[in-house]
Amino acid sequence: MSGNLGGKLVLVTGASAGIGRAAALAFAREGADIFATGRREDALKTLVAECTALGASARYLAGNLDQESFVQRLGKEAAGADILVNNAGILNYGPLLEFSRSDMEAMFATNVIASIRVAQIIGAQMVARKSGHIIMVTSGAARQVSKYAVIYAATKHALAAITKGLRLELRPLGIKVSEVSPGMVATGIRDNITSPEAVAAIKARTIKALSAEEVASAIIFAAAAPANVMTEMLDVRPNGST
Ligand SMILES: NC(=O)c1ccc[n+]([C@@H]2O[C@H](COP(=O)([O-])OP(=O)(O)OC[C@H]3O[C@@H](n4cnc5c(N)ncnc54)[C@H](OP(=O)(O)O)[C@@H]3O)[C@@H](O)[C@H]2O)c1
User: Fold this and answer.
1) Could you state, in order of their start, the residue ranges of all structural domains in the chain?
2) Which CATH superfamily is domain 9-235 in?
3) Which of 7, 22, 118, 193 to pair with 29, CA 20 to 30 A apart?
4) What stretch of H or E contains 204?
5) Does ligand 1 come within 6 angstroms of the Cβ of 220?
6) Residues 75-79: contacts with CB within 8 Å, 24+ apart?
7) Helix, strand or coil, per DSSP, at residue 170
8) 139 C-beta closer than 6 A to ligand 1
């Protein structure tokens, strides 16, 4: 246990799988109260049961962050969150010239607009209480561009800019804003990729991916820092190859 997370209410978006799920469990082990959200209700139910088995208080709300009505409802039900892990995201790969409008819109809707809306609503509550911590999960793609993941990189570049701007505006108000920027992580985020070029490019990678738990430990590190310490940015990269 890191000591100062006990009893903190932590809202984790994208908690039904991957990094968000691992982060929710890691916070539960630290004694935090968990509010988990994602679209898959069964996965959230299982997560809440696992958090409860660890001795944590845990709740969930299932829904689609691309829908404004759901974001508003989430803001009300998770009101008072001390820590927001703004993590939900999607990844579509494919050659830029062939990228469909719907795939572009879906990525910007979830990775950028939904992330901003959650940060706005929960951030305003934190400002009113003069305390809180927003942890944004971006990506190595927030600062570099690779073939076939150009639109994803564009969404993550945007998210990094938003994170920086949020920090500029909220730091004087006593709110911490951290960015956790992982390299490749072994999760299901690439499971739906069909573009043959993209599948071949992913297969050709020799990097040993991080585990979701390894990224979660970086999120805990940022969250557990003493009150006067703001971890602005954690670049978390795999150390090795397959
Ligand atoms: N995996 C990597 O290599 C990697 C590297 C760097 C950064 N990241 C970033 O890390 C974050 C988590 O990714 P991951 O790898 O853990 O992916 P993942 O296993 O696919 O999990 C993504 C999570 O986001 C949720 N989500 C997606 N769209 C949503 C929507 N419209 N409304 C509500 N929830 C939604 C999913 O829940 P439902 O499906 O239940 O809705 C799921 O819980 C993302 O922002 C991703 O860009 C990932």
Assistant:
1) 9-235
2) NAD(P)-binding Rossmann-like Domain (3.40.50.720)
3) 118
4) none
5) no
6) 75/118, 75/121, 75/122, 75/125, 77/35, 78/9, 78/11, 78/35, 78/37, 78/122, 79/125
7) helix
8) yes
| pTM of the complete model | 0.97
- In order along its 242 residues, the chain shows pLDDT tens digits of 556 899 999 999 999 999 999 999 999 999 999 999 999 999 999 999 999 999 999 999 999 999 999 999 999 999 999 999 999 999 999 999 999 999 999 999 999 999 999 999 999 999 999 999 999 999 999 999 999 999 999 999 999 999 999 999 999 999 999 999 999 999 999 988 888 887 888 888 888 899 999 999 999 999 999 999 999 999 999 997 65
Q: How many CB atoms lie within 10 A of CB 42?
A: 9
Tokens at residue 75, please? 């803001």
Contact (CB, 8 A) for 223 and 27: yes
Atom index in ligand 1 nearest the CA of residue 182 equals: 6
| 93 in active site | no
CB of 44 shorter than 6 A to ligand 1? no
Instruction: Indicate the top mutation candidate among 73, 87, 108 to test ligand 1's pocket, ranked by most ligand atoms within 8 A of CB.
Output: 87
| Alpha carbon distances (Å) from 86 to 1, 136, 242 | 22, 5, 30
Closest to 85 in 3D by CA, of 134, 127, 132: 134
Determine the distance separating the centroid of ligand 1 and the alpha carbon of 39, expressed in angstroms.
11
